[in-house]
Amino acid sequence: MAAYLLAHEAGMDRLAGQLRDRLTLSQRAVESEIERFAYLPQVLGEDNRVLGLLAQPSADRVDQVNAYLTSVAEHAQADVVYLIDRNGLTLAASNWATPSSFVGHNYDFRPYFTDALERGRGAYYAVGVTTGVPGYFLSSRIDGPDGPLGVAVVKVDMSPLERVWAEAGEMTGVADSAGIVFLSGVPNWRYRPLYTLDQTDTSRIQAERRYDGNDVFSRVPLVDALETSGLTSVSQEGLPRLAMSTALIAPKGWRLFSALPSAPVRDQAQLVAGVVGLLTLVCLLLGLYGYQRRQLTRWKLEQNTVLERRVAERTGALAREVEERKRAEEELRHTQDSLIHAAKLAALGRMSAAIVHEVSQPLSALDNTLAAASLHARNQNTEQSTASIQAGRDLLKRMQRTIKNLRTFSSRAKSLPSEPIALEQSIAEALDIVAPRARERGVTAVLESVDTAIMAAVNAVRIEQVFINLLINAIDATASMGNSQVSVRLRQSGDMALVEFCDAGPGIPDDIADQITEPFFTTKATGEGLGLGLSISRAILEDYKGTLAFSSAPGGGTCATVSLPLATRQSRLEPAK
């Protein structure tokens, strides 16, 4: 019995918590539905057409205001918007063209009208005496220079709340300050007293014609009285017993209520009581085997000691294995860096003759330029001497730029951090480095299309190595066919940056298309390459979530396409050196 009482009390507490949560959500929904129209009556009073109609009514002004109110109701999604003069007569309404038009009706008996005239604003829920459709009426007084001119009213349809509650299966509703339920997810509860009505409230409701056409006073209240603390029990013929919780909606005096069946709490308490009785019986039986269980526990402790020793041994072995794997991963990273550096040196080796020519040609020109400068100096020809020295400086800057690019490219770059860089700058650096090779092979690398706003989060040195490898391959392939142009394009596709290197070479045979990115695979003669360029390029791109793809170029040849995720361009950044 004690277990049943405790479980029942705990279950009712949980039920009360569920009802509190439901009331909180429902209260916010009701208040939100009302407040989104609270501004509208006052705004209507600011319109010159409305003020003109109230000050000097005329047929033309009525037509203008009718059209205006129709537009306001449509855009604000209000049920009806209408204008009443200070005597209670409706002059214009958004439903003027319907059979149930408010125009010409007098509503001076409605509290929302009298409250607005006396206090400036009014709010009232009732069944419409003209349409028979219930709604929430929000009103605001419109003043003129000599006093009140009339009242602007917005009727809000709150039936969507009822539909939501009904569709969700919630027994939730709202009662007015007198206790009449006017909104409910249970149709049978609508226009029914929540509790026994006071005679004063009954008389006032009849005088106001609040629920005109609904006999609310002959129906039995849901409960006799509400509990001041805790849950209120609701008993209805043919329905299970319910537990109800309520909350006030200030300042309107409405009472929001919600109910849930209490039978599951009783059933659960009975189940707990049965389980507790069964457990008690089990405990008595277990007491008979106390000695045997103690023996079993002692044996388990001994086994646990053995198991812990084995776990410690295995943990030590796993720790050593982890160290070995870390060491192997470090060696693998070192080997990968070495392979990348070897691929760089191999590319430089393939371009060595062209690089020597690129440096020796400016040196020869520099020697001639300095000799000319010396001759001009002896002839005291200052202008020619200065021009020769400036030409020599230009040749030195050209060689410095070439050497700087080669030194940056050949450096042993480790796993440097990524940063947003402008891809067109990295392409330009790569084109500068391979320019000697291109001239040597009689090929021109042309940057056909470039979008300078495209950026990617990569390491500049490593991405330049990818571009250089692809450019060298494109130059060699183009030269092998006797052609003379390699095209490079930079563009954006969705959230990816695409760099395309298209050659005029022989293309990629289908039988080796799947092997070209494998390590040490090459179609060049022995000594012309290590077969690591494309493999390393693909590995570098995968580090940045990029891809490398090959396709046939229009008119013959191959297009190598590098895809990289775009990076946000926060500032213009130079490639990392």
Approximately how much beta-strand content do the residues carry? Answer: 15-25%
Mean pLDDT: 82
Specify the CATH class of the largest domain.
Alpha Beta
Structural class: alpha+beta
Could you tell me the CATH topology label of the largest domain.
Heat Shock Protein 90
Domain module tally? 3
Placed side by side, the strands forming the largest sheet appear as: 8-7-6-11-10-9
Shape-level CATH architecture of the largest domain? 2-Layer Sandwich
The radius of gyration over CA amounts to 44 Å
Distance N terminus to C terminus? 82 Å
CATH superfamily heading of the largest domain:
Histidine kinase-like ATPase, C-terminal domain
Number of strands: 18
Quaternary structure of the protein:
single chain
Mind describing the biggest β-sheet?
A: 6 strands, antiparallel
Question: How many helical stretches?
Answer: 14
Shape: flat
Unreliable runs:
570-577
Question: What characteristics describe this protein?
Answer:
Beta-Lactamase; six-stranded antiparallel β-sheet; Heat Shock Protein 90; disordered C terminus; 3 domains; alpha+beta
